[in-house]
Design goal:
The chain is an alpha/beta fold and about 190 residues long. Helices cover about 40% and strands about 15% of the residues. Strands 1-2-3-4-5-6 form a six-stranded parallel β-sheet. Helix 2 packs across helix 3 and helix 4 packs parallel to helix 5.
Length: about 190
């Protein structure tokens, strides 16, 4: 980020590395990074119960709460990762309100999505919304106001149709915007502008 004017960064601990939040020197290093003028967010942080070999839910919850506190302290949005852990994510966010943030790569239900939007969060969608079996994602997309939507790649994964199975990158965002526009009854350029 220091070497490239157009690059910025976030600093945080992913749930797969949640145990690191117990190390005060690592947390101090993250705080130091958050003071950098090009630090724009905290995270990616949250909960991931998908893999059996991940840290326990208790360790992940502890790390998530610490990073919510950091995001609020430094007045930066939190990039939230939640996978197979939506109920716990919602409960923590209700108990520890967040000033701003985005649930990235959204994969939850329509009802959970409504709750997250009510909390003032942005919702990020990937190329998944272009897949044939994307009914759940499309139902969620319908309840998110245009000004709370984000398009993301989650590079190198989840390339949109017609590039599915290939390496995803930001050059493929227009395909996602086209699908969003279709669902939101607008045009792709309006989605991209927002």
């Amino acid at each position: 980020a220091e070497e490239n004017e157009f690059m910025y960064f976030s600093a945080g601990i992913h749930p797969h590395d949640a145990i690191q939040a117990r190390d005060e020197s690592i947390m101090a290093e993250i705080e130091e990074m958050l003071n950098h003028p090009k630090a724009v967010a905290v995270g990616e942080a949250g909960l991931d119960y998908h893999f059996d070999d991940s840290w326990s839910p208790e360790v992940q919850k502890e790390a998530f709460i610490k990073q919510i506190e950091l995001a609020n302290k430094y007045n930066k949005p939190l990039i939230i990762h939640t996978r197979d852990a939506m109920l716990d994510t919602l409960n923590i966010l209700e108990e520890h309100p967040l000033k701003s943030g985005v649930v990235h790569c959204y994969s939850g239900s329509r009802e959970s999505c409504k709750q997250l939007v009510k909390m003032g969060l942005y919702i990020g969608f990937t190329g998944v919304i272009t897949f044939k079996n994307a009914r759940r994602a499309l139902e969620s997309l319908k309840v998110v106001p245009l000004d709370r939507l984000l398009i993301e790649t989650d590079c190198p994964y989840m390339a949109p149709v017609p590039m599915r199975g290939k390496r995803n990158d930001s050059s493929l965002i227009p395909y996602v915007a086209e699908k969003m526009a279709e669902i939101k009854n607008t045009d792709a350029q309006s989605v991209l502008d927002i």
